Amino acid sequence: MTTTLTPILTSFWDDPKSWTLDTYVRNGGYRALEKAFGMGPAAILQAVKDSALRGRGGAGFPTGMKWSFMAPPDGGPRYLVVNADESEPGTCKDVPLMMANPHVLVEGVAISSFAIGCEHAYIYVRGEVVHVYRRLLRAVEEAYAAGHLGDDVHGSGATLDITVHAGAGAYICGEETALLDSLEGRRGQPRSKPPFPGVAGLYARPTSVNNVESIASVPGIILEGVDWFTGMGTEKSTGFGIFSLSGHVKNPGQFEAPLGITLRELLDMAGGMRDPDKELKFWTPGGSSTPLFTAEHLDVPLDFESVGAAGSMLGTRALQIFDETTCVVRAVDRWTDFYKHESCGKCTPCREGTWWLKQILGRLESGVGDEEDLDKLLDICDNILGRSFCALGDGATSPITSSIQYFRDEYVAHLTHGGCPFDPKASTLIAKDHKESVSA
Amino acid sequence: MAHDFGLQTASGHLTVSEESKQAYPADVEARFRADAAQVLERYPQKRSALLPLLHLVQSVDGYVTGRGIDLCAEILDLTTAEVSGVATFYTQYKRHPNGEYTVGVCTNTLCAIMGGDEIWEAVSEHLGLGHDETTEDGKITLERVECNAACDYAPVVMTNWEFFDNQTPESTIRLVEELRSGAVVRPTRGPNRVSTFKEVSRVLAGFPDGRADEGVGAGPASLVGLALAKEQGWTAPEGESSRHQGSPTTHGEPSADGDGATDASPAGAARGTTMGRTEVTPASDDAKARKAEPAAARDEADETPAEEETSTRTTGSTPKTKKKKKDS
After folding, report:
1. pTM (predicted TM-score)
2. A322 touches chain B (CB under 8 A)
3. ipTM score here?
4. 3-state DSSP assignment of residue A391
């Protein structure tokens, strides 16, 4: 093992009252905000740029660059909007972060807002995690009471208000312009870009939309320094991130590590596969929208460049692990169901395409159809990819094209077998418990 | 749903019951308007209040009623069509009376494969309900839900948007029976009891219920990495704050590698030393050089402890798996 874990955002999640202001301050909280006021906006922006922090929400766009692309101040309002609509299948890092340590996000929002000249920031959290929403509301309330928010924060003269806004159930609102439409009280549908949010975002004003973990990483960069941050990770994928292991691993959970760690290392840390006699079959490096990997990719460094070079995307570091008991067609069919359900309907290729993909995949999983359907699937994917306003449709094609690439034979086996050749019970958590109790 | 290959039904979405069109009693409407005024204060443009206000409608009516749409439209200067257009876009807004508790079984891929499908089948059969259908006693609305960002706790069931982790068909049937009996039901990660659909809808409109401090900060899966790091003495490198705060002799202090130093085991000591070496390198130096050097050092030093780890960790199957993988 060459890489070790670096608990930073997660460092005191085990405190019995980890979410409170008291706990946060006891662990050094809000010192970065104080330091930031001493530095001034330009120096904060420079530090975030120099840290080369790349967006942690999936796309990996450099956060500092995003801020610097905002239209210059013209005296009108400028907005920071935190994307806390974590909904990508497999992704489960922001929700535990906000539940256990909401103040690191609030402090990050305060520093980031000061840097970009924002006086009213929004945290858009998905509505389906009500306890996270409670914790965020409470954290903001505590921060106001302690003078970390409101008028003349820390005597700096800066004003900052935060509104925590709950969504109402729509994956598409994780797309930044759909999120802005939703925050404006509309159906959450992506906008045509340009203009980018940096020029015309919320209420057509300059806006930066950033992921929870990106903003939560800012206090550390300010307090501990750029070199501290770039000392972790790789040259182009600097810093740390929360890696979420789920599925057929012994100890699924959250692992905060430098970017560039491998799945082999993380699997070791998670106690290996759930059943050591079962082989790793396929996995997602960053959620269902990132092309599948297989056991041959165990040593791919999990940084933006290496994962990209290996044919997928780092995405949200949502490592969903599936062993040989899992039917890949069933998995992909279900993800396709999701994309079909969540397509907002604005762009025809995505709206119609995901529907047809589901028709064909559902048929294949039931053993109906023929091998030409595979080419038809690939053809439809080709007609969706890159042809819509946002990346939802693109994401829908990833599991399909990658699974046909690696597991074409398994699709064919469904046809020759006249149905799914797998026993769905074998892949369940209960199957594991059953096995353990038998062997014990 | 699993066998329709993508077809959707419109049942319950095209009909609006008569009661949903009746005007609110005066006191209910007055309270709604007062609450709405508070919601509007949060935004520079009032249309932004629409999502919270629709949650607020559900907190009063238990679903998005016609009268709720009318009132939202009036308050926000929108047409009822505009409000309906938004209400029909989001899955949390119900177009027909919802049960007191929404029980949502995650059947997205990971949870489905980990047992979500079995849970769904069992509870659906037990209650005699399909997706988005409600028991006759009005207690439970059953749903298939999409990924709820708790995959490390799969399979997951949500009850009124509170987490019920690592569920089984039996535990979920027990859960719905407890909910129907009126017992206090406590989520795995959440407040001390599950609130009703209407109560939770009020929270989602941005009105705290005072339960934020209840429940755990993090569940066991969220802490797996942190616990391992503590066990191994792994910490993040030290940065500027500790150097500025500490005395000029920071380099000589045990500081963060104290864990390793006090650890009696050779593995811990070895690790502590290694970590220490990483951390005391002055940050003002070239960051890349710093990165390259300790990485190599760690490589050697960690070889031994990694072997020893396996005997102390209960999860001893790992190295075998690893070896097998390399061979295959």
Report:
1. 0.88
2. yes
3. 0.96
4. coil
